[in-house]
Design goal:
Layout lengths: L1 E8 L3 H13 L5 E5 L4 E2 L18 E2 L2 H5 L3 E4 L2 E5 L4 E4 L5 E8 L3 E3 L12 E3 L4 H12 L3 E5 L3 H12 L3 E5 L12 H13 L2 E4 L4 E7 L2 E7 L4 E3 L2 E4 L3 E3 L2 H5 L23 E3 L6 E2 L6 E2 L4 H13 L16 E5 L4 E6 L2 H7 L3 E9 L11 E9 L5 E8 L3 H13 L4 H5 L17 H14 L1
Length: about 450
């Protein structure tokens, strides 16, 4: 039986990042990644294989850099883990021993118990190359597609398929798109943009059943009574932790199905860690259990685990998931971090909102300029930043990361108002109207009244 210093089960963002951190910070240690597929997709890129990218293969994450760094790969499926004997049983290969083990088994799509969910033509978006290839052509050549769920996958799939010429209807049970990430004032322009791309958007609607003929999808019936013709249905209502293997190994599982871990991603079993979608998450502000699943969160957890496998080298200071999101619908990009105004109110925070509206280049007539709207949410009376949302152009992605760091480091409105920044005409708003500062100043003015 071959034994490795570090074995990682799963090789997507969490597993790959954990392997890289483990190898870099533990010189001389052997690192093995076990995954089912020889090639793995970039999960967040999957929707773009249905339009923006020319093929599914263009979304494959290269494995060569990891191998060059000395990380080994085994393409196989783990069938059992014995945490007492520190050994792994595989479907095709002989048993493997480990010194430290990391579960990075990810998540799987939720399939709701809607009548008709098992009809031919009903699909989910699985993070699996062979599966995505199998549904790619049928979706791209479909006449009418109904997408159930307006989270990031649902919205991005809607936009990509519509731009490719498919007739798309997007159904969401709540009153706006991306309801857990954005308030209505931020998401409204994006919703109108989707409609302009040809997506029929139906909010405050729930699916009653999926209708079929001869075992194949023919329509979707809403609880309102409307019948929407469809030859394909995408269920995009979320994901659940993939923890069957962990449960069978005796690991403690949390309320929402994730593997229980401490601050350093250590599980209830000695020498066993868990990172990413399969691990339990906590909200940054309330420490309540969270269903949040993000590749960026997974990568951060993976670095924590990889750096602290053999001793606690790096103290963890982030005490929960901030929930940083971003997406792009072409002309409009959206970013969010922390609590929405609605969520802050539900949690009982007294808040002040600061707003900035302007252009992301200066002067605004420069090519590629986009309107930019920044919304900052501060708790009172402390002035702590607890939420941020942006609607704008390509700079949105990096600006929301700045605001995520500001939340993580407990920055206040007064600190952001004197935040030092660099500007450049083609890259940012003007030096006198940098949006983070303007929004912070707006909040400060409201606090004084």
């Amino acid at each position: 039986m071959n034994t490795y210093d570090v074995v990682i089960i799963g090789g997507n963002p969490a597993g790959g990042t954990a392997a890289g951190a483990a190898k870099k910070l533990n010189k001389g240690k052997s690192v093995l990644v076990i995954r089912k597929e020889p090639d793995a997709l970039v999960p967040c890129g999957i929707p773009y294989t249905f339009g923006t990218l020319d093929s599914v293969e263009e979304d494959i994450k290269p494995i060569a850099p990891a191998k060059k760094a000395g990380i080994e790969f085994l393409i196989d499926e783990v069938t059992a883990v014995d945490t007492e004997a520190k050994k792994i049983t595989l479907q095709k290969s002989e048993e493997i021993g480990y010194e430290k083990l990391i579960f990075a088994t990810g998540s799987e799509p939720i399939v709701p118990p809607i009548p008709g969910h098992d009809l031919d033509g009903v699909v989910t978006i699985r993070k699996d190359l062979a599966y995505i290839k199998s549904i790619h052509e049928p979706l791209m050549t479909a006449r009418k597609v109904v997408i159930v769920g307006a989270g990031f996958i649902g919205v991005e799939m809607s936009d990509e398929l519509a731009k490719a010429g498919v007739n798309v209807t997007l159904v969401e049970a709540m009153d706006t798109l991306l309801p857990l990430a954005f308030d209505a004032d931020i998401i409204a322009p994006a919703q109108e943009l989707l409609k302009s791309h040809g997506v029929a958007v139906k909010t405050n609607e729930m699916v009653d059943f999926i209708q079929g003929e001869n075992g194949k999808v023919s329509a979707v019936k809403l609880k309102s009574g409307e019948l929407i013709e469809a030859d394909k249905v995408i269920l995009a209502i979320g994901y659940r932790p993939n923890t069957l293997l962990a449960k069978e190994a005796g690991l403690e599982i949390g309320r929402f199905g994730g593997i229980m871990t401490d601050e350093y991603m250590r599980t209830s079993a000695a020498n066993v860690f868990a990172v990413g979608d399969c691990a339990k998450h906590r909200d940054f502000f309330t420490h309540k259990p969270s269903r949040l699943m993000l590749a960026s969160t997974a990568a951060a957890e993976a670095r924590i685990a990889g750096m602290n496998l053999f001793s606690l080298k790096v103290m963890r200071q982030t005490k929960g998931s901030i929930a940083i999101f971003s997406t792009s619908l072409g002309k409009i990009s959206l970013g969010a971090a922390g609590l929405t105004e609605k969520a802050a109110d539900q949690e009982g925070f007294k808040i002040i909102v600061g707003i900035s509206a302007g252009m992301d280049h200066h002067p605004g007539k420069l090519p590629g300029t986009s309107e930019q709207y920044v919304k900052l949410i501060f708790a009172q009376p402390s002035g702590l930043l607890i939420g941020a949302q942006i609607q704008g152009g390509p700079s949105t992605g990096e600006m929301i990361n700045i605001l995520g760091l500001a939340i993580q480091k407990s920055m206040t409105a007064s600190e952001l108002a004197v935040f030092q920044y660099g500007t450049q005409p083609m890259l940012t708003a003007g030096p006198g109207v940098y949006p983070i500062v303007v929004a912070a100043m707006d909040a400060l003015a409201k606090m004084d009244t």
